[in-house]
Write a structure and sequence with these properties.
Elements: E1 4-10, E2 16-22, E3 25-28, H1 31-50, H2 59-68, E4 72-73, H3 74-81, H4 85-97, E5 101-106, E6 109-117, H5 119-122, H6 125-139, H7 145-161
Antiparallel strand pairs: 1-2, 2-3, 4-6, 5-6
Helix pairs in contact: 1-6, 2-3, 3-4
Length: 179
């Protein structure tokens, strides 16, 4: 049987990384590191897919929400995208300047801005859906259906485990279910 070697070191970010070497194969057990890597790869993937439309990857969750929930408020978009209000406002400025969305005061509360897709914005639906579908397919390439379900279940549990961590500009447990 192979030798078990365990190395633990401090990364540049707080937290420990556990690497186990079994028979010459290292296995990295830092869940946060893998999730962070997936986030960075997702942003690169989305940036490449959105570039032909002149849109940043941060526009993708906003467009997704607006396709599902027309006339969302800026606050709702901020919570859904798990982004601070200033970041969402900057992305909406770009989307509005490019003719993809319009913003108008809520008829029941003038302090609230409602964001709606324009016809040009609605034309992005196949792009948005295709981008998200292709990303999910890439992530789960070679997975069985049971493995896909298990992965989603485990990720959802991890999100629930950190439910007490407050996201920027969002009340506890109101981060679109993602934290």
């Amino acid at each position: 049987m192979g030798t078990l070697v365990v190395r633990v070191w401090q990364q540049s970010l707080p937290g420990l990384v556990l690497v186990v070497n079994v028979g010459g194969t290292e296995i990295d057990y830092s869940v946060g590191r893998w999730i962070g890597m997936l986030h960075h790869k997702a942003m690169a993937f989305f940036a490449e897919r959105m570039a032909p439309y002149g849109l940043p990857p941060a526009a993708l969750p906003l467009l997704r929400r607006l396709l599902r929930e027309p006339a969302s408020s800026q606050d709702e978009l901020s919570r859904f995208a798990i982004r601070d209000k200033a970041n969402v406002s900057r992305v909406l400025d770009k989307l509005e300047a490019d003719g993809f969305v319009t913003r108008s005061p809520d008829p029941n509360d003038s302090r609230v801005n409602r964001v709606c897709l324009t016809d040009r914005g609605r034309e992005l639906e196949p792009v948005v859906r295709g981008c998200l579908h292709d990303w999910n397919d890439l992530l789960t390439q070679g997975f069985t259906e049971a493995e896909r379900e298990s992965a989603v279940t485990l990720l959802r549990r991890m999100a629930e485990n950190c439910g007490s961590v407050q996201c920027a500009d969002a009340p506890p447990n109101q981060c679109g279910g993602a934290c």
